[in-house]
Amino acid sequence: MAVERTLSIIKPDATRRNLTGKINAVFEDNGLRIVGQKRVQLSEAQAGAFYAVHKERPFYGELVSFMISGPVVLQVLEGENAVAKNREVMGATDPKKAEPQTIRAQFAESIEANSVHGSDSAENAANEIRFFFAETEILP
Ligand code: ATP
Ligand code: MG
């Protein structure tokens, strides 16, 4: 197993409900280290570009509006198999289908307002980290 990094976003539904610490505890309890973190208000252009892969999906416009509806917490998580590990800890996109104890099962409000984002491959993780973080903002 290799030490990897992945991009995580605590989404506006979770920052609004003051859940940053509870979600971070799940990451840390599962062996993921938060090696970069900042709370920001995304612009429409940033959110639109970040989710550009979903541009043709019917929920794209609403997803972008949701992602700019309040602050998000951008994070770089590091650990053994961090990309897959984080996806496991997050749970399924639809919280109704997420395994118990996952972040989405515990905290998500809906399939859209599902509390967290996590990169879905090592290649996307590298691109997403570069999109939001300077190397000097990542401190292992
Ligand atoms: P993320 O990319 O945020 O980590 P994911 O990889 O589990 O989530 P994707 O299929 O990439 O899911 O969808 C990106 C995001 O779009 C979801 O997390 C969710 O916020 C929103 N989304 C996905 N499917 C739907 C849907 N059917 N209706 C509304 N919003 C959706
Ligand atoms: Mg995704």
UniProtKB/TrEMBL annotation:
<keyword id="KW-0547">Nucleotide-binding</keyword>
<keyword id="KW-0479">Metal-binding</keyword>
<dbReference type="Pfam" id="PF00334">
    <property type="entry name" value="NDK"/>
</dbReference>
<dbReference type="InterPro" id="IPR034907">
    <property type="entry name" value="NDK-like_dom"/>
</dbReference>
<keyword id="KW-0546">Nucleotide metabolism</keyword>
<keyword id="KW-0418">Kinase</keyword>
<feature type="active site" description="Pros-phosphohistidine intermediate">
    <location>
        <position position="117"/>
    </location>
</feature>
<comment type="function">
    <text>Major role in the synthesis of nucleoside triphosphates other than ATP. The ATP gamma phosphate is transferred to the NDP beta phosphate via a ping-pong mechanism, using a phosphorylated active-site intermediate.</text>
</comment>
<dbReference type="GO" id="GO:0006228">
    <property type="term" value="P:UTP biosynthetic process"/>
</dbReference>
<feature type="binding site">
    <location>
        <position position="11"/>
    </location>
    <ligand>
        <name>ATP</name>
    </ligand>
</feature>
<comment type="similarity">
    <text>Belongs to the NDK family.</text>
</comment>
<keyword id="KW-0460">Magnesium</keyword>
<dbReference type="GO" id="GO:0005737">
    <property type="term" value="C:cytoplasm"/>
</dbReference>
<feature type="domain" description="Nucleoside diphosphate kinase-like">
    <location>
        <begin position="3"/>
        <end position="140"/>
    </location>
</feature>
<dbReference type="GO" id="GO:0004550">
    <property type="term" value="F:nucleoside diphosphate kinase activity"/>
</dbReference>
<keyword id="KW-0067">ATP-binding</keyword>
<dbReference type="InterPro" id="IPR036850">
    <property type="entry name" value="NDK-like_dom_sf"/>
</dbReference>
<keyword id="KW-0963">Cytoplasm</keyword>
<dbReference type="GO" id="GO:0005524">
    <property type="term" value="F:ATP binding"/>
</dbReference>
<dbReference type="GO" id="GO:0006241">
    <property type="term" value="P:CTP biosynthetic process"/>
</dbReference>
<keyword id="KW-0808">Transferase</keyword>
<dbReference type="InterPro" id="IPR001564">
    <property type="entry name" value="Nucleoside_diP_kinase"/>
</dbReference>
<feature type="binding site">
    <location>
        <position position="87"/>
    </location>
    <ligand>
        <name>ATP</name>
    </ligand>
</feature>
<dbReference type="GO" id="GO:0046872">
    <property type="term" value="F:metal ion binding"/>
</dbReference>
<feature type="binding site">
    <location>
        <position position="93"/>
    </location>
    <ligand>
        <name>ATP</name>
    </ligand>
</feature>
<comment type="subunit">
    <text>Homotetramer.</text>
</comment>
<feature type="binding site">
    <location>
        <position position="59"/>
    </location>
    <ligand>
        <name>ATP</name>
    </ligand>
</feature>
<feature type="binding site">
    <location>
        <position position="104"/>
    </location>
    <ligand>
        <name>ATP</name>
    </ligand>
</feature>
<protein>
    <recommendedName>
        <fullName>Nucleoside diphosphate kinase</fullName>
        <ecNumber>2.7.4.6</ecNumber>
    </recommendedName>
</protein>
<feature type="binding site">
    <location>
        <position position="114"/>
    </location>
    <ligand>
        <name>ATP</name>
    </ligand>
</feature>
<dbReference type="GO" id="GO:0006183">
    <property type="term" value="P:GTP biosynthetic process"/>
</dbReference>
<keyword id="KW-0597">Phosphoprotein</keyword>
